[in-house]
Design a protein that fits this description.
Elements (H helix, E strand, L loop, with lengths): L2 E7 L3 H12 L4 E4 L25 H15 L2 E3 L3 E6 L5 E5 L4 E9 L3 E3 L7 H4 L4 E2 L2 H4 L7 E5 L3 H11 L4 E5 L9 H8 L4 E4 L2 E7 L6 E6 L6 E4 L2 E4 L3 E3 L31 E3 L11 H22 L1
Parallel strand pairs: 1-2, 1-6, 2-3, 6-17, 8-15, 9-10, 9-15, 10-11
Antiparallel strand pairs: 4-5, 5-6, 7-16, 12-13, 13-14
Helix pairs in contact: 1-2, 1-7, 5-6
């Protein structure tokens, strides 16, 4: 079986950018797209924070990235990795579900992370029609409107604070009687007049005809149900990185994110294996930061290959 220079795992902005830079460096590159070709941007109806485009549908942006790497000669596989191993010579073998093994001198993991959802009634139907998992991405669409943020950790509080500068009213819904977020963040939230906090509440259902119009809340302490009018809702209860196939192969933290180090923060615990994008990023989780990290990972992989030549 042929051994390629760079195997990129994951088909979002990080993966496509890594494949682009590795191929332009003259390396043989295989891009394994994964279960969701194009990544999370394929579920985003409008992207308005991608440099150079005032607005562009997420799927269109990912098609452009794919066409670019294919034109450069990147081998694209529509499959996902089920296992990864490294032999005694330092070569990495990636077992895919349908396509067999891919053997590579270096691997760049760009498998991303998925937002955790509530599973409440109406949630799936109204995603991208008022319901979002990212306030930074979609908050500006709800300027001057009423929104709900679900969650009680740092992410939920930070998103509520961010939205309070844009929206008429922000209602924070948390199932417990106190926040899990850091005290300094909670203090900042409480200082905002446009934010209302509803403790001991869970989302019972999201409702609306074609777009979100209200959120029905149940009580955890015996109070009655409550309906909150809202044009937007942001579910901020966490993310799950796509690292199940790699946790026995490289070091991950307690939440499953790949631990990285080095100047650009793309090196992993295994020599010749790099990581970029949401699979290693708990903080920013933006398409543009993922693309930048993909660039750095490709440059690090190219440097590794050159030093080992």
């Amino acid at each position: 079986m042929d051994v390629i220079d760079v195997a990129v795992v994951g088909g979002g902005p990080a993966g496509h950018t890594a494949a682009l830079y590795a191929r332009r460096a003259g390396r043989s590159v295989t891009l394994i797209q994964g279960e969701v070709p194009g990544g999370q941007l394929t579920t985003t109806s409008h992207v308005e924070n991608w440099p150079g485009d005032k607005t562009i549908p997420g799927p269109d942006l990912m098609v452009r990235m794919l066409e670019q790497v294919e034109e450069l000669g990147v081998d694209v596989i529509y499959d996902y990795v089920t296992e990864a191993q490294t032999d005694g010579d330092g070569l990495h073998a990636l077992t895919t579900d349908l396509s067999g093994n891919v053997r590579a001198r270096t691997v760049i993991l760009c498998t991303g992370a998925q937002a955790l959802w509530l599973g409440a009634e109406g949630e799936e139907r109204l995603k991208n029609a008022g319901i979002s998992g990212c306030a930074t991405c979609d908050g500006p669409f709800f300027a001057g409107q009423d929104v709900v943020v679900v969650g009680g950790g740092n992410t939920a509080v930070e998103e509520a604070i961010y939205l309070s500068d844009l929206c008429r009213k922000v209602t924070v819904v948390h199932r417990r009687d106190r926040f899990r977020a850091e005290a300094i963040l909670v203090d900042r939230l409480r200082a905002r007049d446009t934010i209302e906090v509803l403790f001991n509440r869970t989302v019972k259902a999201f409702g609306g005809e074609g777009k979100l119009e209200f959120v029905d809340l149940a009580s955890t302490n015996g109070a009655g149900d409550l309906r909150v009018p809202a044009q937007g809702a942001f579910v901020a209860i966490g993310h799950k990185p796509a690292t199940d196939a790699f946790t026995d192969w490289i070091e991950c933290d307690a939440d499953g994110y790949v631990r990285t180090h080095g100047v650009g923060g793309t090196l992993t615990s295994r020599q010749g294996v790099f990581a970029a994008g949401d699979v290693a990023d708990k903080i920013y989780r933006q398409a543009i930061t993922s693309a930048g990290a993909g660039c750095m990972a490709a440059l690090d992989a190219d440097r590794f290959l050159s030093e080992g030549a």
